Amino acid sequence: MHRSAIAPLALALFAALAVRGQESAPAEGPPPAPRWPDGRVSFTGTPDEVGNWEGPANASIFFEVTAGKEVRPAPSLATNPSLDQVPFQPWAKELYLQRHASLQAEDPHTRCKPSGGPRFFHTPYGMEIVESPETGEVFLLAVGAPHSWRVIPVDGRALPENPEPTWYGHSVGRWEGDTLVVESTGYNARAWLTREGVPYTPQLKLTERISRPNRNQLRYEATVDDPGAYTAPWSGGWHLRWSAGNEPFDYLCQENNRDPARMTGPQGE
Amino acid sequence: MNRFATGLLLLVMALPAATHHSFAAQYDSKKPVNLGGVVTRVEWTNPHVYIFVDVTDAKTKKVVNWGFEMGPPHMLQKAGWKRNSLKIGEQVEVEGWLARDGSNHANARRVTRSSTGEALGAASSAGQTLTGSGAATRPPAPAGATAR
Amino acid sequence: MKMPGHAQFATLLLAASVLAGCGAREEAAPRRTDGTILFDRVKDEKGFWDLPSVASLAEAGVSVEMDARGKLKDPADAARVAPFQPWALALYQHRQQNDFADDPMLECIGPGNPRQMMTPGGVRFIEDRNFRRMYMIYGGGNRNWRTVFLDGREPPNPDEVNLSFLGLAVGRWEGDTLVVDSTGYNTRFWMSNGGLPHTEALRLTERFSRPSHDELRYEVEIDDSRTYTRTWKAGWTLKWVAGDIQEQFCETGRE
């Protein structure tokens, strides 16, 4: 960066911090999560305040070291492991590092492929969480990516045995207090678990824990139990941000996707 | 105001988010570009809006058509654009970053209409949602507009 | 910060509707305890809408033979399918003669409306009474979903919106019928199997009803004066199918 840029940069940094300071002025912190009439926590808004969840694109499920320093993106959970703590099998770590080195040039998501699990929760442009009390299901509707949906039956049914492998896997959910616990199996393992390229195999059993510590945050944590790629289960996650006023809109990645042809990665330089 | 806006843009450029998404695989943040020309086509589409601009080389007078990628339509809309904001034949200046593949293509972070000097944010995918005059007074938004 | 009671009151359903779990269903559509109709399943029931009764689109009352892809058995029937403007008839005939080689769905573009409703793979209607919306979630085409705003807002100005495949839709209940007005369509899709054309001027008025447990009635009025000489209507039905929508995503085969 040019030396001449430092002064305005410092000015902007100061301004940004000042704004942040103003935002955090109220002593009481964020308001509590809304609740349904039966007392259970709500993962959505109210008729007076629509909105949806913004998936944090910069969140990571584990912390990496860049230039000797651990990078801890703000939305990530403080309890996330570091890269070295993730119990990769050697081939999985090698694959992960290769995807990282290529700057994610081979990302299936960029080719409009669906991504279940954690990736679903850091896809931008808004995610609606819709509870259907008539049917005992929770629907996750993502605006971005292929503009698709996941369904989580929360009716006590068991996971299917030997299901047809799919992009989103097969899920069942249950409530543990205010936490929705979702277990999924039956993945085709053609996607990446996160934007960074975390690998997985069809042996994956994923447990997702979704809760809402306050009005503004949805806490998402995934436990990856995949003996095909890891030597032990491990967990990580991040917070999604409530975007008041956001409404869903029609979106289609396939409409005019010119990116893949140009994704050279670093060798293009 | 201009200096503030410039500083904010640079701050945005310094955010680490650029290493976490497809921007880095496709564009080179070390290769800024600044080009002016005449709009020949607008593709107001997902996942990205594209504009195409005829750029005339000052010396050779040769005309080259450049493509510029911006954010998705809804982000541009938040930044004050409409799908018919830019007119075919209109003169614009575009700031952005070059594609790594060496083609006449770049990621736009700001488009300025030559007729009015109005700077339109391009909702670039370089780790920031809104840039340009319409967004310069806001704090940096979380990097949520960086991918599909 | 509690929600109003109406957001969740529907957890209790009429016992009669739960009885619909087995047997032939000439019986009535299920309803909530407040009497409002349900287009989706009730608790402990598995099902969705599929098996569209038509393979393509032709004006109501017009009888033309088409195959499962909407290809006319007799090309001379083309002008009878809809009240085309001359250019639109020529484009329709071209698509027919070209054997649909440039069908956008071959590139995994979503079917768009109203083609989505004749695309096999399933559809469910998830009503969000909290936000006053109807979500239509699709199994066919590209496994997309559509939002219909039921909050009484005015339809948007088509000149101000981002054009899309499923349009911008506002709806209202007229008794047991969901009436949906939509606009803001792009022209990157074909309006039907068989290649009926449209322009950005397209405006649809769709009417969804459930005359019995097992039947969903779909009627659509097509208003696009740049493509057709007058508004025209078509309608078809979908059947209630047991089970869950199976996941399928379109792939071009070049992945």
Structure overview:
The complex is a heterotrimer of chains A (269), B (148) and C (255). Chain A has 269 residues and is α+β, with helices and mostly antiparallel strands. Helix content of chain A is 11%, strand content 26%. Chain A contains 2 helices and 11 strands, in the order αβββαββββββββ. In chain A, the strands form 3 sheets. Chain A has a 6-stranded antiparallel beta sheet with strand order 1-11-10-9-8-7, with no helix packed on it. In chain A, strands 4-5-6 form a 3-stranded antiparallel beta sheet, with no helix packed on it. Chain A starts with 5 loop residues before the first helix and ends in a 25-residue tail after the last strand. Chain B has 148 residues and is of the alpha+beta class. Helices cover 16% and strands 35% of the residues of chain B. The relative contact order of chain B is 0.24. Chain C is mainly beta. Chains in contact: A-B, A-C, B-C. Chains B and C meet through α3 of B and loops of C.
Describe the structure concisely.
The complex is a heterotrimer of chains A (269), B (148) and C (255). Chain B is α+β, with helices and mostly antiparallel strands. Chain B has helices spanning 2-14, 22-26, 73-78; strands at residues 27-43, 50-56, 63-69, 91-99, 105-113, 119-121.
Describe this protein with a few key phrases.
heterotrimer, A: 269 residues, alpha+beta, six-stranded antiparallel beta sheet, three-stranded antiparallel beta sheet, 2 helices, 26% strand, globular, disordered N terminus, C: 255 residues, mainly beta, 3 helices
Strand order of the largest sheet of chain A: 1-11-10-9-8-7
DSSP helical segment count of chain A? 2
Beginning-to-end CA distance, first to last residue of chain C? 48 Å
Structural class of the helices, strands and pairings of chain C?
Answer: mainly beta
Question: Strands, helices and their partners?
Answer:
The complex is a heterotrimer of chains A (269), B (148) and C (255).
Chain A: H1 6-23, E1 51-54, E2 64-66, E3 69-71, H2 90-101, E4 127-132, E5 137-142, E6 149-153, E7 170-176, E8 179-185, E9 205-214, E10 217-225, E11 234-244
Antiparallel strand pairs in A: 1-11, 2-3, 4-5, 5-6, 7-8, 8-9, 9-10, 10-11
Chain B: H1 2-14, H2 22-26, E1 27-43, E2 50-56, E3 63-69, H3 73-78, E4 91-99, E5 105-113, E6 119-121
Parallel strand pairs in B: 3-5
Antiparallel strand pairs in B: 1-2, 1-4, 2-3, 4-5, 5-6
Chain C: H1 15-18, E1 47-50, H2 78-81, H3 86-97, E2 123-128, E3 133-138, E4 145-149, E5 168-174, E6 177-183, E7 203-212, E8 215-223, E9 232-242
Parallel strand pairs in C: 4-5
Antiparallel strand pairs in C: 1-9, 2-3, 3-4, 5-6, 6-7, 7-8, 8-9
